[in-house]
């Protein structure tokens, strides 16, 4: 009996500290579920699965048996927390998130390409490897990818980032001639002669990547949709998604909406850098969105073209929490889904090591994965 209590306490401490544990005692099972890929990077864990069933059945969970266990659990958690606080004044966030400096960037060519009604600023690391195009969120620009640029380039890829029209360094030239952001992405591809490429879109950028996949599937090697509401015509999904956030949500500061609470508390300097890049991204709001993309994106169309797809999210994302990402996952058979614990709507910035490793693993073998049922 004493041994069981010790293992129980050990499991709880591991859970509180963000560590994984493989033990099981009586009616308690903690960590180590079959099929879950857990990577400890900066104290965080990644849950990754290959199809809807395996994701649902292998998500890290706690299962208990016996009456009154939840009351005991709550008391024990509070006791452990108060004991740890009195023993040493070290924030638990220090173990969960260690601030990371932005790495030195590799050399990249900069320039502008002309698209309909606009001039888009871009940077391009060059090289002979497959091209990776980074499509930024609405709260960013081509400047935000400091954690990704050198890592992906050193992994052998030609990495390209750009600012959408009227974002940082890009400009509107002829408002009457503007086309959609999806068509601008195609213009960038044609101007740089990329041919087929991997597209990685975060938040609003993920919706543009979906539109591009539906319109130009022959140009994509794969698509990564990160922390995104997407752009699929699905009224039921749109209604459910809108219900997640109150009407006053958009009045919150961008860093509160977009960054998870753990990150904001653990890395205030990182929050300042993110907010500064967000402020720098702003330009003339009148033309930021542009006209809608032609055509309609549907689940049927995306499934018919069969582009290898990675769906990536954070469990603290207030726009696309895990259940909404799973909704996407179920409707895209063969897609992969990864959830980064502790990350909000800007996983590329909050948890760059896990983000980069997950995406690079996918790019190295983007073929659709399916897990057979039992």
Write the layout of secondary structure elements.
Layout: H1 2-17, E1 24-25, E2 28-29, E3 46-49, H2 52-58, H3 69-87, H4 93-96, E4 109-115, E5 118-124, E6 131-135, H5 149-154, E7 158-162, E8 171-172, H6 181-192, E9 197-202, H7 204-215, E10 220-226, H8 235-243, H9 254-258, H10 261-266, H11 268-281, H12 299-305, E11 309-314, H13 322-331, E12 336-340, H14 347-350, H15 352-364
Parallel strand pairs: 6-7, 6-9, 9-10, 10-11, 11-12
Antiparallel strand pairs: 1-2, 3-12, 4-5, 5-7, 5-8
Helix pairs in contact: 6-7
State the gist of this model:
It is built from 15 helices and 12 strands. The protein is an alpha/beta fold.
Describe this structure in words.
It is a single chain. With 374 residues, the chain is of the alpha/beta class. It folds into two domains: 2-81, no CATH class; 109-364, Rossmann fold (3-Layer(aba) Sandwich), CATH 3.40.50.1820. Helices cover 39% and strands 16% of the residues. The protein is built from 15 helices and twelve strands. It has helices at residues 2-17, 52-58, 69-87, 93-96, 149-154, 181-192, 204-215, 235-243, 254-258, 261-266, 268-281, 299-305, 322-331, 347-350, 352-364; strands at 24-25, 28-29, 46-49, 109-115, 118-124, 131-135, 158-162, 171-172, 197-202, 220-226, 309-314, 336-340. Strands 3, 4, 5, 6, 7, 8, 9, 10, 11 and 12 form a ten-stranded mixed β-sheet that branches. The longest helix is centred in the N-terminal third of the chain and has 19 residues, at 69-87. The radius of gyration is 22 Å and the shape is globular. Mean pLDDT is 80; it is low at 1-44, 55-88 and 370-374.
